[in-house]
Amino acid sequence: MEEIKILAIESSCDETAAAVVVNGRKVLSNVISSQIDLHTLYGGVVPEIASRKHIENINFVIEEALEQAGVTLDEIDAIGVTYGPGLVGALLVGVAEAKAISFAKGIPLVGVHHIEGHICANYIENEQLEPPFVCLVVSGGHTHLVVVEDYGKYRILGKTKDDAAGEAFDKVARAIGLGYPGGPKIDKVSKEGNPHAFEFPRAKITDSVYDFSFSGMKSAVLNQLNLSKMKNEEINQADVAASFQQAVVDTLVTRGMSALKETGMKKFAIAGGVASNTAIRAAFKEECAKRNIEFYHPSPILCTDNAAMIGSAAYYEYIQGVRHGWDLNAIPNLKLGERYE
Ligand code: KG4
Ligand code: ZN
Question: What are the distances in angstroms from CA 105 to CA 16, 100, 300?
């Protein structure tokens, strides 16, 4: 089989990343330069700082990815780059860089949707995984329940109406004094807490069974904290964290299982930063096993933003003939399934 080597670039948020991926599944290198320590000082991602840091880091990250993979640009068949959704200034750094390399070396350019990348992270460690399957994408910016009908072909069943799952984790963590980024911290302290200490609402949306809403859940936590404060009651941080996490788990699992039932599909995958959450993984593993559903999830390093997943998605776009021109632009609100060619 012919080997297609893709150099992939990701800069949509606070990670500057580059990777070399062969035939969409084999990762030769996966370099990630995280800015998290810098943004932690401000309690969240500062877009202006993110863009500046991407500019400073991107050349080194790409050189490192090529070096670790043991390849030169002359051996690269295509450049894959995230062009949306994300922070416009951050995306632009990756897109401009990819266009420059593509132009200078005459290498085809393939723009990639960031969420498509997260979904494709599942192909990397699961050789046998092929569409169709149902995928739940839960990250800091997105919560999407998607039917992956074929490579590059997605049908969105539901998405969040307000906050993304990761955003809710980060906001609740801040409220209970855990700091940024909140997801991993809530995950950790929840192990010490009682998930049924508080019954936070399991967000219900009446017009679509598959949509999500996390803003109400976050408000319920804040109300509980205020109430306890007013009553001068000591609040157990681990109990709040565990109860909130349980509410998120229940919401995600209910939607995911309904999607499997309705579509009749036998494969389920999770993706995105929040897919690293140990309680979420455990719950899906159990519920899928009960129903004889194959459950897939990427390793934590492939759940958070990285370029290997972009290299995988770019490959499937590339073999379907997708090429972008010099007019490729960053599209901060790019919709999944839309193509700008
Ligand atoms: O996919 P990602 O790296 O960036 C976006 O595309 O948004 O996701 C980052 C999000 C953050 O909100 C972070 O708190 C959350 O993923 N996260 C977690 C865990 N690890 C990361 N949330 C819950 N549990 C975790 N273990
Ligand atoms: Zn992401």
Answer: 22, 8, 34
pLDDT digits (tens, 9 = 90+) for 255-310: 999 999 999 999 999 999 999 999 999 999 999 999 999 999 999 999 999 999 99
* Ligand 1 cavity residues, CB under 6 Å: 13, 139-141, 166, 169-170, 181-184, 187, 272-274, 276-277, 304-305
Please name which of 51, 7, 12 lies closest in space to residue 31, comparing C-alpha atoms. Answer: 7
Average pLDDT score over the chain: 94
Sign, CA torsion 72/20/112/160 = negative
pLDDT of residue 38: 73
Six-digit token string for 53: 């840091």
pLDDT of 205 reads 63
> Ligand 1: which of 112, 138, 284, 304 to mutate, judged by most atoms within 8 Å of the beta carbon?
304
Considering only CA atoms, which of 61, 81, 85 is closest in space to residue 13? 85
CA-nearest of 336, 305, 326 to 98 is 326
Nearest CA to 337 out of 116, 8, 110, 79 is that of 116
CA–centroid distance, 14 to ligand 1, in Å, is 12
Structure confidence at residue 35 (pLDDT): 76
Buried b (16+ CB within 10 A) or exposed e, 324-340: beeebebbeebebeeee
Burial class (CB in 10 A: 0-12, 13-18, 19+), 232: exposed
